[in-house]
Amino acid sequence: MSLISCKKCGKEYSTLAGNCPSCGEATPQIKEINVPEKKNKRLSKGVKLAVLILCLITALTFLSVQVYSNSNYDKGNDAMQKGDFESAIIYYDKVIWNQKAKERIEQCNVGLMIEKEIAILDKEIAEIIEREEMERALFLTDPDALDMWQRLKIRYGMTDSEMSKNRRGILLTQLEKLKNNEKVQYNKNFYMPL
Question: Of 126, 125, 121, 129, nearest to 175 (Cα)?
Answer without folding.
Answer: 121
